[in-house]
Amino acid sequence: MYRAITRQIEVTVEPNFLPERSSVENRQYFWSYTIVITNTGGETVQLQTRHWIITDASGRKQEVRGEGVVGEQPVLAPGEHFEYTSGVPLPTASGFMRGRYQMVSESGEQFEVDVPAFSLDSPDNKRVLN
Fold first, then answer.
1. Residues 6+ positions from 87 with CB-CB distance below 8 Å
2. Where does the chain show beta strands of DSSP type E?
3. Which of 38, 19, 39, 15 is nearest to 29 (CA)?
4. Cβ distance 46 to 73 under 8 Å?
5. How many angstroms separate the CA atoms of 30 and 11, rounded?
6. Which residues in the chain show pLDDT less than 50?
7. Residue in 96, 100, 90, 98 with CA at minimum distance from that of residue 119
8. For 62-117, where are the alpha helices, taking DSSP H only?
9. Which of 8, 27, 65, 111 makes a 20 to 30 Å CA pair with 44?
């Protein structure tokens, strides 16, 4: 599990390789990832947008921006959390993702929350130690 805390907003990520949605022969690899966003602060916040940077093992980067997550812009009161699962395909057997959420507090202040960088590894990926 991967974890980051920004301004009392905790984001944890758990990636999972999905062999049933992947095809080594066609160079298609697919992962799901489950994210839990927890408001450990004292003020209600709302997630407005997301920004992802997805990098495959060849170094190719793809940026994804959009409103909310999985069609929602969750509001989190102090102590509340929001959990969702999404997915990502890659043409390589490994890669990584990192990102940010644009949030707004109940007082109207906008701020960014880091999503921890997380690794996407398939069982077919051979690790190289330096």
1. 18, 21, 30, 31, 32, 33
2. 2-6, 9-17, 29-39, 45-56, 61-67, 75-76, 81-90, 94-105, 110-121
3. 19
4. yes
5. 22
6. 129-130
7. 96
8. none
9. 65
